[in-house]
Write a sequence for this structure.
């Protein structure tokens, strides 16, 4: 029987919910905290922030990551900035406005109470990061500088050149370093969590593979926090790092945690276009570029002239034309789809025809080259190294690319999944962004979850008690470790003829073509069949070299691709079941006469959360209805 | 676009082995716009298909920001181009038929784990000694409470750009980690928030650097030349000043480092 999920949203007025909830959360006395062990998987903004803060509070924290050091978690790659409703620019910003922008940006598919809390916490994040020595950009007067991101009409984005994620993450890393020295946090780099251990219905530990020795290891705790990032590499080519994976959340799903809105993916409008099939990733060009860059295509299909030879009158600045109020700063889903529409109409540029221009000529004229270089210099250099062309003179060529996943494990207001004691933070949960995330809001969410929400709600969970002592000798650990070992041995035992990358590439093509920017019933049905075939083929024909008890990158990747081959199918099923268009989920069957997404609020104003029912069984779709009590639900318009 | 044939002379070393050796492999159909790591991917695909052991190397973001990748290419850390990480190197910088030597970042404190992968956790241990501001979550004043001159914020940002890749160590004849350590010390010395702990921080971090077995800096400048993020060697001079200020400020190096 399909369930109606309870998000456990505290009662009372929206603005007071979090404060009251914090007051009502039971506490653990300082002297008792070290008796509790908390596992935190992930060292990005969400995981690292949570681990460091729990450590500061005195809990005994075990923190894991797949990189060789916590400082390289994928948050490091974020470029453009982090939002906060500080209103330092006096342009009318407020908690209410950030809340409103985020709910609207998410196309009315996020949870009001969570988004409001995020907007409230945003301010403390900036203060905290400044106190930790994060070198945010500043004005000559010494105050913090801001810029604008898509989908909003205020300047609320804080940044550190084009390296905001790096600087925020190094802040987290420094806090972690301090706690590691203090002995509260134990760090396990190059350790990949491969499964979750449940004892008496509660999350009590994990099984990891030591990526250097290949050894399987068990860790027990009183609570487990997963903050393992997003799953965009299910598309193979994405803007994410090559080690980003769904494995931790997928394994938790298979142990009973519900997976919410798996089909909500963000295709970012401005990435360097794909050049060839040798490629291992796509490089993002930050959304901040749309502050000053203008997107255009030639008016005439098939126009192959060099951009400089196309006169002004023969160019179509399609975002400015279609969305005069927001122009080049419309939200990502809208900009991405608009680019696709132009390319599908034969107006795309470059060798493949799958690219549009992002032009800085006007900005350089208006501001001068130096100002443009100061704002975007590192991005221009990156572009030039890849494309061997100078964006100061020739417009950039860009095309949408998979970038962020709004879907993730379902969590309630306490960030607790449907498995008691299993908390999920950052991009790994489905949380706050609805069907589309606004730029500079992921860093905000990662920091809010990590520094502020997780420490409070995990303390509440621990304080409620009822947790018996569990060690890694418990039979549940043995059983899970056994299963993991068998799975990895099986991967090595296939000894087929095609490489892991071959399968990953094939999966990526199916996902991009059928479960990408535009989806329809027939395509999704084909995708499901094709993914099942690929999965069959994988387990019969994959060739994984080397041994389990060794440093073995191919084996690591094989495990992750095996999970992507399952997740891809669930994404297609979710997209098929959601018979509407909303945010990043665009069903070709559901659009307005102008080609904009058409929601079906009557039937789909809910979160879809899937329950695993066993391999080979159809998963079950549950719902969490969404209620908007503080915001008027409208058709999203940026015109 | 013309395809190239590239010969790669690569350091191979089994896990736990004391010694390794070079092996030469040939990769066909290399395109000029491919990245260097994509060429290694191509080689690994070929080796896997042939039933041979792929070459282990580290990478993650593949866009020059995470600091995971790091190879000595043609004798230079991160390859012959300035201001780039290994993952940013494109094949258009090499000739058809060329033999390219590929080695790990070699240094005593960076033991080789396998093939081209090294252990750089020594950097983490240095950071743990004092590369932070002791500011607990929730204790911060308003972000604009203390104005910071733009020039100081910019200088802090220049130093903070360090990605911790370790190229500076690999390039230094003494395997010194001074550029890495000085970048963190400088960053925090430019910001008022770093003030209260500055003397102690310099003493502790430098103490740990020595204990990890990194060599002394004798001003060769190789580190600055290979640094993908253009961290300036001036930071090392600044670090020395911080160190002396710390020592004069009554922080005994030995006591402070706890040994
Ligand atoms: C190129 C790029 C640019 C971006 N720019 C912006 C921006 O300007 N503004 C913005 O707000 N957002 C931006 N984003 C999005 C944002 O960076 C991410 O959503 C956010 O940083 C995710 O943080 P996180 O803490 O949830 O996860 P991550 O930072 O991805 O960290 C995941 C952690 O989990 C670990 N992990 C994963 N799986 C396992 C496992 N099985 N076992 C052990 N450890 C595991 C990893 O090692 C890592 O430590 C950008 C994203 C990309 C790709
Ligand atoms: S892989 Fe991240 S810097 Fe090269």
């Amino acid at each position: 029987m399909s369930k109606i999920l309870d998000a456990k949203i505290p009662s009372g007025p929206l603005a007071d919910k979090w404060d009251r909830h914090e007051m009502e959360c039971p506490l653990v006395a300082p002297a008792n905290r070290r008796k509790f062990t908390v596992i935190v998987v992930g060292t990005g903004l969400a995981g690292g922030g949570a681990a460091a803060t729990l450590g500061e509070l005195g809990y005994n924290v075990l923190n894991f990551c797949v990189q060789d050091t916590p400082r390289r978690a994928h948050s490091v790659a974020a470029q453009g900035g982090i939002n906060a409703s500080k209103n330092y620019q006096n342009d009318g910003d407020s908690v209410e406005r950030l809340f409103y922008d985020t709910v609207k940006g998410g196309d009315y598919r996020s949870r009001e109470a969570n988004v409001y809390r995020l907007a409230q916490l945003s301010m403390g994040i900036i203060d905290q990061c400044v106190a930790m020595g994060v070198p945010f950009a500043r004005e000559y007067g010494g105050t913090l500088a801001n810029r604008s991101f898509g989908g909003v009409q205020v300047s609320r984005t804080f940044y550190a050149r084009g390296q905001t994620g790096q600087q925020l993450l190094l802040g987290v890393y420094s806090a972690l370093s301090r706690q590691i020295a203090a002995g509260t946090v134990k760090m396990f780099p190059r350790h990949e969590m491969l499964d979750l251990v449940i004892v008496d219905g509660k999350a009590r530990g994990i099984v990891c593979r030591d990526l250097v020795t290949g050894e399987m290891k068990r860790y027990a705790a009183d609570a487990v926090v997963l903050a393992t990032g997003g799953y965009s590499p299910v598309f193979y080519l994405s803007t994410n790092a090559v080690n980003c994976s769904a494995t931790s959340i997928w394994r938790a799903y298979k142990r009973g945690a519900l997976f919410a809105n798996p089909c909500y993916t963000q295709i970012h409008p401005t990435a360097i276009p794909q050049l060839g099939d040798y490629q291992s990733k796509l490089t993002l060009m930050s959304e901040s570029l749309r502050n000053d860059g203008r997107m255009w295509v030639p008016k005439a299909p098939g126009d192959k002239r060099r951009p400089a030879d196309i006169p002004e009158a023969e160019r179509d600045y399609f975002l400015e034309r279609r969305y005069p109020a927001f122009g080049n700063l419309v939200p990502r889903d809208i900009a991405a789809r608009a680019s696709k529409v132009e390319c599908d109409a034969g107006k795309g540029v470059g060798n493949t025809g799958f690219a549009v221009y992002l032009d800085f000529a006007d900005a350089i004229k208006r501001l001068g080259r130096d100002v443009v270089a100061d704002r975007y210099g590192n991005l221009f250099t990156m572009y030039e190294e890849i494309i061997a062309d100078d964006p100061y003179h020739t417009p950039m060529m860009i095309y949408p690319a998979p970038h962020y996943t709004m879907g993730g494990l379902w969590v309630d207001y306490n960030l607790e999944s449907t498995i008691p004691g299993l908390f999920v933070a950052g991009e790994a949960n489905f949380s706050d962004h609805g069907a589309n995330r606004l730029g500079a809001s992921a860093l905000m969410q990662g920091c809010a979850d990590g520094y502020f929400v997780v420490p409070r709600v995990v303390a509440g969970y621990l304080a409620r008690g009822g947790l018996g002592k569990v060690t890694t000798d418990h039979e549940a650990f043995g059983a899970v470790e056994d299963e993991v070992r068998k799975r990895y041995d099986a991967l090595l035992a296939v000894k087929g003829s095609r490489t892991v990358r071959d399968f990953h590439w094939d999966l990526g093509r199916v996902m991009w073509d059928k479960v990408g920017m535009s989806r329809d019933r027939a395509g999704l049905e084909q995708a499901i069949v094709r993914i099942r075939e690929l999965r069959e083929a994988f387990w019969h024909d994959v060739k994984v070299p080397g041994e389990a008890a060794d440093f073995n990158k191919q084996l690591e990747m094989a495990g992750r691709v095996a999970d992507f081959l399952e997740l891809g199918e669930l994404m297609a099923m979710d997209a098929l079941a959601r018979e509407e268009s909303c945010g990043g989920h665009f069903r070709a069957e559901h659009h307005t006469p102008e080609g904009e997404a058409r929601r079906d609020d009557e039937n789909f104003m809910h979160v879809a959360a899937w329950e695993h029912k066993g391999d080979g069984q159809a998963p079950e779709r549950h719902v969490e209805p969404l209620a908007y009590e503080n915001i008027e639900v409208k058709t999203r318009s940026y015109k | 676009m013309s395809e190239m044939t590239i010969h790669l002379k690569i350091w191979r070393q089994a896990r736990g082995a004391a010694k390794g050796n070079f092996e030469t492999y040939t990769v066909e159909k290399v395109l000029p716009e491919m990245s260097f790591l994509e060429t290694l991917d191509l080689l690994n695909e070929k080796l896997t298909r042939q039933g041979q052991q792929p070459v282990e190397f580290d990478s993650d973001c593949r866009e020059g920001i995470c600091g995971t990748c790091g190879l000595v290419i043609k004798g230079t850390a991160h390859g012959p181009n300035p201001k780039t990480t290994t993952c940013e190197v494109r094949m258009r910088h090499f000739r058809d038929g060329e033999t390219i030597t590929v080695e790990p970042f070699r240094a005593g404190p960076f033991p080789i784990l396998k093939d081209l992968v090294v252990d750089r956790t020594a950097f983490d241990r240095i950071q743990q000694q004092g590369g932070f501001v002791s500011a607990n979550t929730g204790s911060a004043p308003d972000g604009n409470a203390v104005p910071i001159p733009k020039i100081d914020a910019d200088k802090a940002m220049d130093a903070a750009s360090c990605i911790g890749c370790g190229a500076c160590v690999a390039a230094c004849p003494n395997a010194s980690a001074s550029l890495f350590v000085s970048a963190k010390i400088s960053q925090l010395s430019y910001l008022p928030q770093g003030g209260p702990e500055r003397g102690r921080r310099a003493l502790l971090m430098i103490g740990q650097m020595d204990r990890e077995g990194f060599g002394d800096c004798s001003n060769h400048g190789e580190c600055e030349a290979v640094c993908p993020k253009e961290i300036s060697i001036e930071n090392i001079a600044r670090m020395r000043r911080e160190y002396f200020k710390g020592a004069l400020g009554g922080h005994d190096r030995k006591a402070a480092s706890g040994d």
Observations:
- The domain at 268-402 of chain A is CATH 3.90.700.10 (Flavocytochrome C3; Chain A, domain 1).
